Amino acid sequence: MKYNRILLKLSGESLQGAQKYGIDPAMLQSYAEQIKTVAEAGVQVGIVIGGGNIFRGMSGAKRGFDRVKGDQMGMLATIINSLALQSALEDNGVKAKVLTSIRMEPIGEYFSKARAIEYLEQGYVVIIGGGTSNPYFTTDTASALRGIEIEAEVMLKGTRVDGVYTADPEKDPTAVKFDEITFDEVIDRRLKVMDQTAFTLCRENKLEIIVFDMDTPGNLEKVLSGETVGTLVKL
Q1: How many domains does one find in the chain?
Q2: N or C end of the chain, less CB within 10 A?
Q3: In 3-state terms, what secondary structure has residue 7?
């Protein structure tokens, strides 16, 4: 495998599958199988998963929730998804630990860099829930932060889109996909890879990003085998 330790960012919305809300068991199983394949190949896998399939703080704020409370509800949603993924991984024979950025034993262990790395080196898939534990930060930013903390070699952003395009491919049929692009070029072209705080964190800490379609079974293994799947964002 091309990488020894990765941070995989999964979209909460993708967990919905064909549903409009919640967790689709078939999608959860697909993710668990893909992660199992790379974990058994010796890749150390850290995971941050969003909560948009259950609750999204910003949309909650628009519906009258206090933004801080809304974001806190979103953090709890990420922990629900983390537990669901842990359960699916364990059902598939993969050792997994949930660490949380907010103290909530026995649901999950409180996150620390040392603990996360210790578990990764023992062969556990480490799922880090609760975002950064602070409001006004997205799970993209949490992924960037945790990726840097666990000393991941790359951040894999698994989405429903198969890479970074010159424009939104769903709106512009002439949009062209990049195989590789630099951080500076993303900024110059004003492309949307992730939110600016997360993007800046990755850039300043030299954490490369691969944006790829996680919903296609086998893609995670292809990315880690060094195949050109998705888009590499590099320095």
Answers
A1: 1
A2: C
A3: strand
- Tens-of-pLDDT digits for all 235 residues of the chain? 899 999 999 999 999 988 889 999 999 999 999 999 999 999 999 999 999 999 876 665 667 778 899 999 999 999 999 999 999 999 999 999 999 999 999 999 999 999 999 999 999 999 999 999 999 999 999 999 999 999 999 999 998 889 999 988 888 989 999 999 999 999 999 998 999 999 999 999 999 999 999 999 999 999 999 999 999 999 9
Task: Answer left, alpha or beta for residue 112, where phi above 0 means left and psi between -120 and 50 means alpha.
Answer: beta
Q: How far is CA 26 from the centre of its chain?
A: 19
CATH number at residue 80: 3.40.1160.10
The H or E element that residue 156 is part of is strand 154-159
Report the predicted TM-score, pTM, of the whole model to 2 decimal places.
0.94
Place of tokens 């409180």: 110
**CA dihedral over 20, 23, 26, 28, signed as positive or negative:** positive
100: number of CA atoms within 13 Å, CB side? 20
**What tokens were used for 100?**
């949380």
Which residues on neighbouring strands pair with residue 177, listed in sequence order? 165
150 and 126 in contact (C-beta within 8 Å)?
yes
Structure tokens at 78: 């990420």
Domain that holds residue 44: 5-234
Sign of the alpha-carbon torsion through 212, 86, 43, 203: positive
Q: Which of the 8 DSSP states describes residue 199? A: H
